[in-house]
Amino acid sequence: MPVLLATAAFLSWWLFQKLQEVSFAMAAVAGAVVVILLLHTSRADKKFMQHLAARHQLVFWAEYSILLLPFHLLLLFSGQGLLILSLEMLLLVVSYLHVSSLPKVKTRAYPFIHHQNFEWKAGMRQNLLPFLLIYTLGIALAPLPYVTLLMLWLLLLIVSTFLQECEPYNLLLLPEKSPHLFLKYKIKLHLLQYIVLTLPLLLLHLALQPTHFILALAAYTMFLLVLMSAVLLKYAHYEPNEKVSSAASLLNALNLASPLLPFLLLFPLVSSIRNYKKAINRLTPFLHDFSS
User: Which sequence ranges are marked TM in the entry (predicted)?
Assistant: First the structure.
């Protein structure tokens, strides 16, 4: 608990400092709206709320406004009060959207995803709309400093949800590899998939913000390390057909927050080293037939 409180306090202070820059404040508002849109599209209680309240959209609006109340206060005290009005108007628009997770379609609708990357295929069926929205914002707002990096991080958040459920035992056996080779295969599969889809955004950012070259490459490398850590964390807690444990989810949250918090920068690396050994031990009983 003290670590979480210290993390929240530092993040609040950091955001307060950065929000005093208009360009960053606009990017932060856009990011907040995207996060709320992700939440809105994934809600399973929309039909229930329609029966419960005639103006259920206003209930959604109130919920999202309360959820972002700390962010509202940071905007206010950092001198960006006018952006609160824009944020509230966008939240109201999101609340009236009747979108939900996209219906399942055949996997061949995703030619840009490797045919053996079932996590991405399943994840894209549920998150294609938010993924495309964030990607579009990353392109449209690329002239603003740091915005594209923020969008790359938000894309990483979406991708991390693809790793929250463990595959069945038969899919685990499909590559027919030893635990060591299996982990190497899965890490390579996920990292290459992320690179293929996000490299155009990174190159656009470098073209429009050449002075951020070192920072952008460092941030992108950090994102890849976070993704590798998420893969290892999943298999360190592997249970066939089960969601990852709450403890693993908390560790993954710290992992995802690490690019934003300087004192957590080494967390993905330390986590990867630790969870690699755990993942090998966890997978050995399942993949012992392929061990040489």
Answer: 22-39, 59-76, 82-99, 131-163, 191-208, 213-233, 253-273
Q: Pseudo-torsion of CA 84, 90, 91, 96, nearest 10°?
A: 150
**Structural domain boundaries in the chain:** 1-100, 105-292
Which pTM value belongs to this model? 0.71
Partnered with residue 165 across adjacent β-strands are 243
Per-residue pLDDT in tens (0 to 9) along the chain, 292 residues? 565 566 667 767 877 888 888 878 887 888 788 788 877 877 777 777 877 777 888 888 999 999 999 889 999 989 888 899 989 998 998 888 876 544 444 444 567 888 888 899 888 888 888 888 888 888 888 888 888 898 899 899 999 999 988 999 888 888 889 999 999 999 999 999 999 999 999 999 999 989 989 999 999 999 999 999 999 999 999 999 888 888 888 888 888 988 888 888 899 999 999 999 999 999 999 888 777 6
